[in-house]
Amino acid sequence: MQYSSEDKTLNLFFAANPKKPATFDARKRMMDAAANCGFLCVELEERAPVDGEDGILIAIGGDGSIIRQVPLALAAHIPILGVHFGRVGFLTELTEEGFLGALPRLKTGDYRLERRAMLDCRVSTGRVYHCLNDAVLYKLSFSGVTDIDIRIDGRSAWTVSADGVMVSTPTGSTGYNLSAGGPIVPEGLSAMVITPICPHKLHVRPIVVRSDSQVELVEHDDGMAAMDGQRVCRVTKGESLVITGSKERASFIRFEQMDLYSRIQERLT
């Protein structure tokens, strides 16, 4: 369904979470209000944004909903505005009520763009994937551990016996990385975090490296590579997952300056 108005200077593409029916009702209310303010509103299922189009992607849900829309926003070179309708919503900017109140500011461009660092990831010499949160190499079997060599800029760092190894951005440091015992890294710091997942030995700890480093994870057994929580491909014995900082940046609309530590207290404690 597409809502139109006389003023079509800016397209708003609305994405609801298919696993949360309530987000579709919220989307209808938000689209009605935005159309009344002069925006051209489009349900993402009807039409996706294209490169060069003047638009904003409105992601309604939690952090997972936002992360799923990042590839589409990157391809179209448009920013994302996250509307909180989930459990944590660390990346979201507004509630539904806040979105309605922010429409005049959205119309006049009274906001700033926050560009967040991403990762480039590939298995051996294959396709390159872009990640906002993290890349993970993990074992296939439920029981036991797998051995993974960790190499940083071509040098062997160590071999870990664990469920897997994760490399995360500052954005991803408050997600799976945090649950696995990794450190929180403030956004804007040019760094990646290497975090073993459930390591077999107590002395194995996360390590922080520069974002322009090349991290290579070499699998001793058959494993699986996942990018931002999505399984991507099998990694066979001897193959490697190669990760480095990306030139790509995911853009988010911000109306206020986010206080990282206040948000951690509000949403992660």
Question: What attributes does this structure have?
Answer:
40% strand, Rossmann fold, Tumour Suppressor Smad4, disordered N terminus, six-stranded antiparallel β-sheet, 269 residues, alpha+beta, elongated, 2 domains
In summary, what is this structure?
The chain is of the alpha+beta class and 269 residues long. Helix content is 20%, strand content 40%. The protein has helices at 22-36, 63-76, 96-108, 176-179, 260-267, and strands spanning 2-3, 11-15, 40-43, 55-61, 80-84, 112-123, 128-131, 134-139, 146-152, 155-162, 164-168, 191-197, 207-210, 214-219, 223-227, 230-235, 240-254.
CATH topology call of the largest domain: Tumour Suppressor Smad4
So how many helices?
5
Return the structural class: alpha+beta
Gyration radius, to the nearest Å?
20 Å
User: Overall pLDDT, averaged?
Assistant: 91
Main beta sheet strand tally, sense and closure: 6 strands, antiparallel
Helicity, in percent? 10-25%
Describe the model.
The structure is a single chain. This protein has 269 residues and is α+β, with helices and mostly antiparallel strands. It folds into two domains: 2-110, Rossmann fold (3-Layer(aba) Sandwich), CATH 3.40.50.10330; 118-247, Sandwich (Tumour Suppressor Smad4). It contains five helices and 17 strands. The protein has helices spanning 22-36, 63-76, 96-108, 176-179, 260-267; strands at 2-3, 11-15, 40-43, 55-61, 80-84, 112-123, 128-131, 134-139, 146-152, 155-162, 164-168, 191-197, 207-210, 214-219, 223-227, 230-235, 240-254. The strands form three sheets. The chain has a six-stranded antiparallel sheet with strand order 7-6-17-14-9-10. It is elongated. The model is unreliable at 1-8 (pLDDT under 50).
